[in-house]
Design a protein that fits this description.
This protein is α+β, with helices and mostly antiparallel strands. The protein has helices spanning about 1-20, 25-90, 105, 115-125, 155-160, 175-185, and strands at about 130-135, 140, 150-155, 165. A 4-stranded mixed sheet has the order 3-1-2-4. Helix 1 packs antiparallel against helix 2 and helix 4 packs across helix 6 (about 175-185). The longest helix is centred in the N-terminal third of the chain and has 64 residues, at about 25-90.
């Protein structure tokens, strides 16, 4: 569609030049007509895309709702496995030197902070800026070690929560921001 509009605009420009050179107003009127057609095509395309996005949004919400309802059941099924994994994992002191221990925060996504409900209540009313990394589900304070050289996107903490981001377990943004807010109050 954009290609057609581009061709129409170029044709209109060519006809305008022809009208100026030949002093024939017919070419100018045809140029204006082509410009109007190009504008109408752009408007039509914009409305079509807008309608398509509006139709896709409820479909996406409908797909997300069943997944959210199934998550608690999946979490309950995974809890025994998680317990087995924690039993099989050696304690940090048993691994020996700190150089031998892998740093999961550098390779993958850090875990989710287990936020205190009181902290969540305080944080949800604030407009403090946190940062997120594209393609990762956590939000962080700017001093988080995991961020290192990653490209970050600043967001308000309320907006980050609305978009589905969860707090990082490494930098514990909910606890840190709520603690700073309580100190000020």
């Amino acid at each position: 569609m954009l290609f057609i509009v581009l061709v129409l605009v170029l044709a209109a420009l060519g006809l305008l030049v022809a009208a100026l050179i030949t002093a024939n107003s017919l070419w100018a009127w045809i140029s204006i007509g082509l410009s109007v057609v190009a504008g109408l095509l752009l408007l039509f395309d914009w409305l079509r895309r807008r309608k398509k996005r509006a139709a896709a949004a409820p479909a996406e919400e409908a797909e997300e709702d069943p997944a959210e309802e199934d998550e608690p059941a999946e979490d309950e099924e995974k809890k025994p496995e998680d317990v087995e994994q924690t039993v099989l994992m050696p304690a940090a002191g048993e691994l020996g030197d700190a150089e031998d221990t892998p740093e999961p925060q550098q390779s993958g996504d850090p875990g989710e902070e287990k936020s205190d409900p009181a902290d969540v209540a305080v944080v949800s009313e604030l407009e403090i800026e946190v940062v997120v990394v594209d393609e990762y589900p956590r939000y962080h304070v700017t001093s988080c070690e995991w961020l290192e050289t990653r490209d970050t996107i600043p967001l308000g903490i309320g907006e980050a929560r609305q978009l589905g981001f969860t707090p990082c377990a490494l930098c514990t943004p909910d606890a840190e921001i709520a603690g700073k807010h309580r100190e000020k109050a």
